[in-house]
Amino acid sequence: MTRLSVNINKIATLRNARGGNTPNVCKMATDCERFGAEGITVHPRPDERHIRYQDVLDLKKIVTTEFNIEGYPNKEFIDLVLSVNPDQVTLVPDPPEAITSNAGWDTVNNKDFLIEVISIFKAAGIRTSIFVDTNLKNIEGAKETGTDRIELYTEPFATDFPNNPKESVRLFTIAAEKAHELGLGVNAGHDLSLENLKFFNENVPNLAEVSIGHALVADALYFGMENTIQMYKRQLK
Ligand SMILES: CC(=O)[C@@H](O)[C@H](O)COP(=O)(O)O
Ligand SMILES: NCC(=O)COP(=O)(O)O
Known about the structure:
By secondary structure, the chain is an alpha/beta fold. It is 47% helix and 17% strand.
């Protein structure tokens, strides 16, 4: 069954709006786990606009499920991840000014860089995943980097899904099959939601994990976090 990792970036966005500690990011992570989340994902960005580096250190002490840290592997990020030693690190190619992730790695042109960074994390015993689109060249390139998994960048699926569900998922099915054939684990994320998750999960084989934040936290405003997590998990059955 596909595992649900809850991305709590947006809890930190709300906390940061007032400068205090409400809502408490660590308490929310613990509660998400209690409500059924099988992992906690954070994506500290260089400007710390939501998750701060200190949050990552604090979360390490209390997360009991899978802890997944996403981000661009500059020196500060690499040092942070090594000091925290999470279960998984997901490398994304975002430039510092990106509003949100909007592309996967060009694994062919960044091959040497990715090999170097991935070897650092693997030497520390941290599972690695790299954020990629469905271009098979990038999936094959991912294999060359030595990564354990890929994370499929699902925003194009989420955008196209309402108009043409079958076509929106087609390349994702092929990419996941290819990754599996190459021995790579398959994660997915970005703009997955209650509306599109079931269809994605049913049509993308060998999906190990989805990380979901923006839509899930928005849904929690209506349904409450406990109900929302259960609703998302039902889509993954
Ligand atoms: C890699 C990915 O798709 C997510 O980490 C996403 O970028 C969330 O980041 P924001 O919460 O900053 O939009
Ligand atoms: N890796 C994707 C993620 O963690 C959450 O993305 P989103 O659901 O906030 O778009």
